Amino acid sequence: xxKILVANRGEIALRVMKTIKKMGIKTVAVYSEADxxxxxxxxxxxxxxxxxxxxxxxxxxxxxxxxVCKELGVDGVHPGYGFLSENAAFAELTEKNxxxxxxxxxxxxxxxxxxxxxxxxxxxxxxxxxxxxxxxxEDVNKATQIAREIGFPILIKxxxxxxxxxxxxxxxxxxxxxxxxxxxxxxKSAFGDGSVFIEKYVASPRHIEIQVLADTHxxxxxxxxxxxxxxxxxxxxxxxAPSVVLDESLREKMGNAAVKVARSCDYVGAxxxxxxxxxxxxxxxxxxxxxxxxxxxxxxxxxxxxxVEQQIKIARGEVLEIQQEDIKINGHAMxxxxxxxxxxxxxxxxxxxxxxxxxxxGENIRVDNGFExxxxxxxxxxxxxxxxxxxxxxxxEAIQLMIEAIADYKVExxxxxxxxxxxxxxxxxxxxxxxxxxxxxxxxxxxxxxKKNQAExxxxxxxxxxxxxxxxxxxxxPH
Length: 479
Ligand code: MV4
Known about the structure:
Elements: E1 3-6, H1 10-22, E2 26-32, H2 39-43, E3 46-51, H3 62-72, E4 76-78, H4 88-96, E5 100-101, H5 106-113, H6 115-122, H7 140-150, E6 154-158, E7 168-170, H8 176-191, E8 196-200, E9 206-214, E10 220-232, E11 235-241, H9 248-264, E12 269-277, E13 283-289, H10 296-303, H11 307-315, E14 332-339, E15 341-342, E16 348-349, E17 356-358, E18 365-369, E19 384-392, H12 395-408, E20 410-412, H13 418-426, H14 428-432, H15 439-443, H16 446-476
Parallel strand pairs: 1-2, 1-4, 2-3, 4-5
Antiparallel strand pairs: 6-7, 6-8, 9-10, 9-12, 10-11, 11-14, 12-13, 14-19, 15-16, 17-20, 18-19
Helix pairs in contact: 4-5, 12-13
The structure holds ligand MV4.
């Protein structure tokens, strides 16, 4: 592979291109009119404008991207995350045009894109699953019967749904009929597929996911877990590796299950197997993400493996150079997603101009960033500015360094989730590891943030006053 096109934007386009460059391969960036001043364009050897700002007129234009590949002699496409990364048709189109898709085969993308198909596929592999049914259900009487067997509360999920979309908790039998009807019609309008199914509702789960790598020769390894329980409305905000709740034995069990999931769909490349972990440390397979994930850096920091480099080597048909025994956890990594959002206003996007934009720098601080001072944050895409990642020899160190790095990250012009990140890092439940996916709902209120801000402002004023008085005294003191 001599030239790779990165079909993405922002921080992930830059992060992927850094490794491509390091490997001595040429890079091609693509961009929309809204992104014409983005750093990912300057970083690339060549760059091509795909079209106007809306994604469906630029980053999602498959034919245009293939055309660019042909014109520029590109032999591989890295899709990053989002956009075309989990589009089976695009993976297929790329391969049909003799361009390597740096990701799994389209069949695996397709199967794992449907929750019911995924359940069906892993069925024979002895993977723990949440009690429930593995087929689409429409009949309310049948649903009631199944729900009785499973026991309430139950959860209705859309087969085509992702990231929590189309999920409904049903606490009592009397609500089942109405919730089913709503779930089906919602799934139809949102995904064009009204298939829903039922699972036992796991009330206080932690979200644990396992990173896997699979080559084209049947070798599959896992790179232990990431914990992503700190999320709001199914949007992850803080991720870390390893998880505080896994011991070696559970890690091995979940790792083996993840490898089996990958095997079940003939997986190739880097993938992530998501599990729920309940209060009794039972784990259940949820779904598989067939892309490089946003939070992949925490795995890179604790294992020393460059996941993008592995993706490319696998795509070139090489045999995995890492064996399971080589994977050792070294230290602890923490990641905060820095969004242009206002935590004081229900995390609504806060787009505008980055009047001040200065990143923290230092040993064990990594910022995967896609913006520069003076740039506008476009309204057309996900408002994530960067990922702030810290590393320490243990969790306490990573948390402390995160607090310091947040303080050194200077943003003016838009609101960000930086202060929210500080709130999390200083929360007693987070620090002690006593949390689940309900953390934000349970402990975070905008008041907590403004109270904290006020308390800190008061303290800062006191310190300033003391210093001022001290200096005045010094000046007055005769020498
Ligand atoms: C669940 C669940 C509880 N019980 N399934 C949310 C996103 C989708 N990937 C699956 N999700 C969940 N499935 C059962 N049977 C709770 C969630 C869930 C969740 C999962 C992972 C991370 C954050 C979450 C937040 C709310 C609900």
